[in-house]
Specification:
- By secondary structure, the chain is an alpha+beta fold.
- It contains 7 helices and 8 strands; from the N terminus they run αβαβαβαβββαββαα.
- About 35% of the residues lie in helices and about 20% in strands.
- The strands form 2 sheets. The protein has a 6-stranded mixed sheet, covered by helices on one side. A two-stranded antiparallel sheet has the order 4-5.
- The longest helix is centred in the last third of the chain and has 19 residues, at about 140-160.
- It is globular.
- The relative contact order is 0.20.
- Pfam families: PMSR.
């Protein structure tokens, strides 16, 4: 086998287990339009591939919907392809619509930190680059304080001061292309989903069974 062919095979294999490896824009059934009620609140989190993060938050009791998108940068109207360059400033982000009577922002922050390695700068294995960095967005001073308190406690008790998560004032969220929405559920046999997304979700479910919806266990 010549060197060029070997490189091609290796590159293709890496794409199969990369969040950026799937760029098939085939038509999919549009995700049902979610209509928030007057009591619904929205929180925004980034911690690696949004296919994984969306599935994790949608498993949590009190979360009504999670939407994949882009936030944290200044580039207008980013796309999946443009943020993949790592030059837009945006990160793959999930908008979490939740009922505060069933789940608190504090609990969502617990889910956020408990479902990733927050000490990894610019990535979550196997995806690396600024577009996969860990960000906890806040809209109010109270939310910022909850995030910072969680970081201080985790740095003291677990991570020895090594948390790399950014704490960022929320500005704007851009919804991702339709084929990314509910990606894990729609594509159970896709290589990355089987190798990364499902194991990450299952690890979270095992760690926090008390936070799951009844039909998720």
């Amino acid at each position: 086998m010549n060197i060029l062919k070997s490189i091609t095979i290796i590159s293709f294999s890496l794409l199969l287990i990369s969040c950026f490896g799937f760029t098939n824009k085939k038509e999919t059934q549009p995700k049902a339009t979610y209509i928030a009620n007057q009591n619904t609140k929205v929180a925004y989190f980034a911690s690696g591939c949004f296919w994984c993060v969306e599935a994790i938050f949608e498993s949590v009791n009190g979360v009504e919907e999670a939407v994949s998108g882009y936030a944290g940068g200044t580039t207008l109207n980013p796309s999946y392809r443009s943020i993949g360059t790592g030059k837009t400033g945006h990160a793959e982000t999930v908008a979490v619509y939740y009922n505060p009577d069933k789940v608190s922002f504090k609990t969502l922050v617990t889910v956020f930190f408990g479902s990733q390695d927050p000490t990894t700068k610019n990535g979550q294995h196997p995806d690396y680059g600024s577009q996969y960095r860990s960000i906890a967005f806040y809209k109010t001073d109270a939310e910022k304080q909850i995030i910072e308190k969680a970081i201080n406690q985790l740095n003291k008790d677990v991570y020895n001061g090594k948390i790399a998560t950014e704490v960022t004032k929320f500005k704007k969220f851009y919804k991702a292309e339709e084929y990314h929405q509910d990606f894990e559920r729609r594509n159970p046999n896709q290589g990355y989903v089987k190798a990364v997304s499902v194991p990450r979700l299952n690890k979270f479910k095992k760690k926090f069974p008390q936070l799951l919806k009844d039909d998720v266990h």
